Amino acid sequence: MKNLSIKIILLFIFAFGLLLSLHTTYAGAELSVEAYCQVCIKSTQQEVANIQELILLVKQYKNDPALLAEKEKVKQEEFEQGKLSLFDSFGVNTFQYITYMGKHEQEVNTYLEKHLDIKRQIEDTSNQVKALIEEYETLKGHPTPIDLK
Questions:
Q1: Measured between alpha carbons, how far is 113 from 73 in angstroms, rounded to an integer?
Q2: 80-100 confidence digits (pLDDT tens)
Q3: 4-20: pLDDT as tens digits
């Protein structure tokens, strides 16, 4: 039960990404490694802000689970639109972003080894996301030790 909420969130994010890829296609050039890293940074920064908003909602509506669920649903829809806009601004869809690392792992790792400031920024924001998810889950009554490495 502990990991159920995280699994549901991750499954939702993945399924959402696949659905978005069906609606948004680009015939243009693929992302550069540098652009991919910038999308990654902006995406995780967006995720930090999103989870912070969810935490505020949980604190505000903790005594009204039905209203909390309704408010969370509205926020998730806003977050999805924000993610779409971000990817669109880089000329990619969600599926392209999700699969980029699998296709270009060596190039990305080489780039990050040469640009340690960018690597550190990605690591820092990813760690923020992890900590915020843990806080969110704890507030929701589902404390979970997670490892998103």
A1: 39
A2: 999 999 999 999 999 999 999
A3: 455 555 444 555 554 44
Provide φ and ψ at 140, rounded to 5°. -80, -5
Listed in sequence order, the residues at least 6 apart from 118 whose beta carbon sits closer than 8 Å to its beta carbon are 37, 41, 111, 112
The crossing angle, in degrees rounded to 10, of helices 116-139 and 94-114 is 130
Which residues, at least 6 apart from 84, have a Cβ–Cβ distance to it below 8 Å?
20, 24, 94
Residue 61 · residue 67 · CB < 8 Å: yes
Q: How many residues does this entry show for the chain?
A: 149
pTM: 0.74
DSSP string, 96-144: HHHHHHHHHHHHHHHHHHH-HHHHHHHHHHHHHHHHHHHHHHHHTT---
